[in-house]
Amino acid sequence: MNSTPKLGKVQLQIMQVLWARERATAREITDELNRQKSADVAPIAHSTVQTLLRKLEAKGAITHRIEERTFVFEPLQEKSEVETGAVGDLLTRLFDRSISGLVAHLVKHEKVSPDELQRLRTIVEQAEAAQNVKTSKEESR
Amino acid sequence: MNSTPKLGKVQLQIMQVLWARERATAREITDELNRQKSADVAPIAHSTVQTLLRKLEAKGAITHRIEERTFVFEPLQEKSEVETGAVGDLLTRLFDRSISGLVAHLVKHEKVSPDELQRLRTIVEQAEAAQNVKTSKEESR
DNA sequence: CCTCATCATTTACCAAGGTAAACAATTATG
DNA sequence: CATAATTGTTTACCTTGGTAAATGATGAGG
Predict the structure, then answer these.
(1) DSSP secondary-structure letter at B44?
(2) Which of A75, A120, A121, B131 has the greatest CB tally within 10 Å of its CB?
């Protein structure tokens, strides 16, 4: 049962803070989240953050040590792991596991700026190049 | 409040059936879902499907007509709409709205076969070509 | 030493998704 | 016609995420 338990919206925001800082106290996380919020939305309560930290720890996504009598949390799950889980979910649920299907959707329905498109091409080209290297190595041994 | 209410996992599966068939009865959907399941998982109960159809209709994702005294459901929300919502969610939650960030993750962490990669390049190149046409039109008027 | 602030813990609620039995209405069928 | 099967409706329960107040513990400041 190693299947990366899915995280909710706010849980992910908390993870983002943890990933960015490596380690943080509950108070730091609360402040950071509220700093990110625009003034017209209600700030999140500190106890809410604590509850979610608790749930994240129960799931094994984070852990804590005690320093100076306060909890210092750090992520256990890596961002790329969580990304893979979420992307995999999306692929399964909506794109029949087709990566090209997803990318086709991206360039067709999300408005992609010209330089973003160029970046996409570079990314794909480099991946192809890397794969060719691997292939020729295979062939030459 | 036109923000494409999010659909759950099974709700999406139901939508998939509806998208594929254009229209279906509750019974047809139940049978289709259970046909898709491997024998070792518990089949979904018909009443569960009916409950979810009800919730989908309450959300405005589908509607029904009555034919021969039985409900025939059809999708109101289009697949591309739902895809956009789900992809947008993923982008916001994990990729800081960066499409290239998402694609970079795809080619790096999901195993993409060589021909899949080639398809990706074609998709991106064609999008670039389309954009260049648009741009030159702009310039020439 | 007493009070205040700060943190952690407990407890409680609501919403949404999923699950499905129980019940009702109505149509087939023996 | 009586009963079985089908379909839709009602009701209920569990889980997870999110929200946060209330309570408890404990160290700091006056």
Answers:
(1) P
(2) A120
Q: Which of A24, A48, A75 is the last residue of a domain?
A: A75
Which residues 90-129 on A are within 7 A of strand C at the CB atom?
Answer: none
Task: Provide the sign of the torsion angle of the four alpha carbons A91, A94, A98, A103, taken in this order.
Answer: negative
pLDDT (tens digit per residue) in B95-141 = 999 999 999 999 999 999 999 999 999 999 999 998 777 766 666 65
CATH number where A20 lies: 1.10.10.10
Task: Report chain A residues whose CB lies below 8 A from the CB of B121.
Answer: 121, 124-125, 128
ipTM of the complex: 0.89
Find and list the nucleotides of strand D having atoms within 7 Å of a protein beta carbon.
6-12, 16-22, 26-27
